[in-house]
């Protein structure tokens, strides 16, 4: 595995694969990532809001059984290992997106695995919002919806962005694993060429690509979160 | 005059079993329009709970809160929200939105009420002017001092054009000088806009400086209520005396001699009554403790004296002192 470059013919062949397929793999990775993140937030963000507002001491208490159910579902999905979850949920892809193979087919299982994480991230961020500020809004006659949209979410924005960055990294990791069931992208490249075909240069190139993506997202996320946080005094 | 706010037989208990705390017990208070009403009490007396019951941030277990004669506890959520716009609140910790500028903080209640952005900003600028911070429009809360934050919070509270302003320990986090300027601002708002102000505090000085009437809250019960001058110059309740003259109130429990408490209204008593007592009646008393206070610019004093052992002589002393205008004396037993 460490003897990567001893055979010039093999090296040339692998470089060929990289030049012809790498760009598409990156694109596929990003495209799947974007869809997964969007859907994970479409479900996870409201769920996270409900976890905070619906509890007994929250601003809009919901029936106890409903909160218990929501928590149980989220915990359950969070505790199943992603690989297993993916295999269990794959039949659902046939129903939702009409196919059980390919990049698109991996999106439903990824979303189902990722939205509970998003919900917990959002929950944590919203809990950081000072209760006094929410109370002030209530004293001004704000409705539950106004408190969520005008107080909780805007006040928690820097924290939500930080959480989003972590979510992005995790989903990227899931995406790499989805290569096993035929999801396209850098993950598939690493597994197919590296693990199944001993083309380790390709594998490393794909892995390094994934590492770089995570790094870029992480530093961009941290910067954006800091730049939109008005609580930081020494803003430029 | 019909009270603007009428608190009727309010009770509130927190927790259950051994952890039960009766935060409010059968509290009734009437607030008149245009007055500055103070509620004072020691920590844990239930002051915050009481003020939070006025706008129903806290739901009382029993009792009613009438605003212009209308029972707020019976309103539907939407109606209650509408009424809350008429009862603004400011807090010890300011509770500004950290991610909004001062101007946008002041716009917030107008935004909630659906006022257009342009009109809201115009009104917010006027209010910044009112609270003396027109140059801080684009500053974020983190860039403001405590006193400035409270001014922004006051401007925000005024944005919805309220009739009542609730202040829960609004100056407790501020230094004396800043406290002074915030109180002056509240006083001006009360005078110029006719807004009824309800002030919660544990600082006597705050009440003395700007309140017309005061209620003393003690362990969830209203111990005493009345004009600030009379309550502070001659408190009738134990809680009141402990609050008004803690130095005079404390040591008595340890002395096993008959004592009397004398309240002086110094504006009326220029005479040296204790010396006169000795001269006129031949009875000497010793002074066990004394305290003077300045209430709305007038001096008030409280004094503890020893009384003769003889019951008849005791009566002579008390009658003599009470005969003087501006002096009231009474024998105290056990605790003051
Ligand atoms: N949400 C709550 N849950 C349980 N107990 C509470 C709650 N809020 C208040 N209490 C209790 O009710 C009592 C009155 O509290 P409150 O905050 O009204 O006092 P306070 O007079 O405002 O005191 P402070 O001057 O310290 O602010 C206290 O014993 C307090 O522990
Ligand atoms: Mg309090």
Topology at a glance:
The complex is a heterodimer of chains A (236) and B (336).
Chain A: H1 8-53, H2 64-79, H3 82-97, H4 102-127, H5 131-139, H6 144-155, H7 157-177, H8 186-196, H9 200-227
Chain B: E1 5-14, E2 21-31, E3 36-40, H1 47-54, E4 62-67, E5 70-71, H2 77-84, E6 87-91, H3 102-112, H4 117-130, H5 146-159, E7 164-168, H6 176-193, E8 196-201, H7 204-210, E9 213-218, E10 221-227, H8 228-233, H9 238-244, H10 246-249, E11 259-265, H11 273-281, E12 287-295, E13 298-306, H12 311-322, E14 327-332
Parallel strand pairs in B: 3-8, 3-9, 6-7, 7-8
Antiparallel strand pairs in B: 1-2, 1-4, 4-5, 9-10, 11-13, 11-14, 12-13
The structure holds adenosine-5'-triphosphate and magnesium ion.
Describe the protein in words.
The complex is a heterodimer of chains A (236) and B (336). Chain A has one domain (8-227): MetI-like (MetI-like fold), CATH 1.10.3720. The radius of gyration of chain A is 21 Å and the shape is elongated. Chain A is mostly helical and 236 residues long. In chain A, helix 1 (8-53) crosses helix 7 (157-177), helix 3 crosses helix 4 (102-127) and helix 7 runs parallel beside helix 8. Chain A contains nine helices and no strands. By secondary structure, chain B is of the alpha/beta class. Chain B has two domains: 5-233, Rossmann fold; 245-332, Alpha-Beta Plaits (2-Layer Sandwich). In chain B, 35% of the residues lie in helices and 28% in strands. Chain B contains twelve helices and 14 strands. Chain B has helices spanning 47-54, 77-84, 102-112, 117-130, 146-159, 176-193, 204-210, 228-233, 238-244, 246-249, 273-281, 311-322, and strands spanning 5-14, 21-31, 36-40, 62-67, 70-71, 87-91, 164-168, 196-201, 213-218, 221-227, 259-265, 287-295, 298-306, 327-332. In chain B, strands 6-7-8-3-9-10 form a six-stranded mixed beta sheet, sandwiched between helices. In chain B, strand 7 (164-168), helix 6 (176-193) and strand 8 (196-201) form a beta-alpha-beta unit. The A-B interface holds A 130, 132-133, 135-143, 146, 150-151, 154-155, 157-158, 228-233 and B 55, 57, 80-85, 87-89, 91, 93, 95-100, 108-109, 111-113, 140-143, 160, 166. Magnesium ion binds at residues 47-48, 169 of chain B. Magnesium ion binds next to helix 1 of chain B.
């Amino acid at each position: 595995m460490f003897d990567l470059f001893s055979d010039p013919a093999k090296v040339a062949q692998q470089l060929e694969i990289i030049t012809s397929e790498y760009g598409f793999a990156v694109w596929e990775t990003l495209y799947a990532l974007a869809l997964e993140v969007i859907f994970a937030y479409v479900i996870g963000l409201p769920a996270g809001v409900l976890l905070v507002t619906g509890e007994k001491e929250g601003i809009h208490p919901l029936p106890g059984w409903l909160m218990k159910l929501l928590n149980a579902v989220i915990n359950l999905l969070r505790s199943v290992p992603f690989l297993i979850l993916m295999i269990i949920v794959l039949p659902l892809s046939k129903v939702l997106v009409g196919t059980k193979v390919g990049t698109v087919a991996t999106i439903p299982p990824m979303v189902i695995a990722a939205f509970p994480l998003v919900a917990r991230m959002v929950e944590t961020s919203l809990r950081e919002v000072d209760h006094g500020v929410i109370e002030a809004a209530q004293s001004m006659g704000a409705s539950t919806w106004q408190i969520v949209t005008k107080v909780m979410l805007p006040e928690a924005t820097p924290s939500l962005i930080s959480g989003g960055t972590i979510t992005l990294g995790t989903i990227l990791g899931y995406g790499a694993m989805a290569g096993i069931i035929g999801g396209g992208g850098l993950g598939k490249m690493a597994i197919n060429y590296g693990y199944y075909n001993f083309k380790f240069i390709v594998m490393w190139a794909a892995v390094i690509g994934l590492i770089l993506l995570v790094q870029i997202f992480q530093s961009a996320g941290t910067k954006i979160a800091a730049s939109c946080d008005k609580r930081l005094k020494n803003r430029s | 005059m019909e009270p603007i706010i009428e608190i009727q037989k309010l009770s509130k208990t927190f927790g259950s079993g051994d952890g039960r705390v009766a935060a409010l017990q059968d509290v009734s208070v009437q607030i008149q329009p245009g007055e500055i009403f103070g509620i004072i009490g020691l920590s844990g007396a239930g002051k915050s709970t009481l003020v939070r019951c006025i706008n129903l941030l806290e739901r009382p277990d029993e009792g009613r809160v009438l605003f212009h004669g209308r029972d707020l506890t019976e309103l539907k959520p939407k109606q209650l929200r509408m009424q809350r716009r008429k009862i603004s609140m400011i807090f010890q910790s300011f509770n500004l939105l950290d991610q909004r500028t001062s101007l946008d903080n002041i716009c917030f209640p107008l935004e909630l009420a659906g006022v257009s952005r342009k009109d809201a900003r115009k009104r917010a600028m006027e209010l910044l002017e009112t609270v003396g911070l027109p140059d801080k429009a684009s500053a974020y809360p983190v860039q403001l001092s405590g006193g400035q934050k409270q001014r922004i919070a006051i401007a925000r509270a005024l944005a919805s054009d309220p009739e009542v302003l609730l202040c829960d320990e609004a100056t407790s986090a501020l230094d004396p000088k800043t406290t002074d300027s915030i109180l002056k601002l509240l006083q001006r708002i009360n005078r110029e806009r006719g807004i009824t102000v309800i002030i919660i505090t544990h600082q006597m000085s705050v009440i003395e400086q700007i309140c017309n009437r005061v209620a003393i809250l003690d362990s969830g019960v209203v111990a005493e209520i009345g004009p600030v001058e009379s309550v502070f110059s001659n408190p009738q309740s134990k809680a009141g005396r402990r609050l008004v003259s803690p130095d005079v109130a404390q040591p008595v429990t340890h002395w096993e001699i008959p004592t009397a408490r004398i309240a002086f209204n110094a504006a009326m008593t220029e005479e040296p009554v204790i010396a006169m007592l000795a001269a006129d009646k031949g009875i000497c008393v010793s002074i066990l403790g004394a305290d003077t206070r300045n209430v709305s610019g007038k001096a008030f004093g409280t004094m503890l004296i020893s009384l003769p052992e003889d019951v008849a002589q005791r009566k002579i002393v008390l009658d003599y002192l009470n005969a003087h205008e501006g002096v009231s004396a009474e024998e105290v037993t056990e605790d003051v």
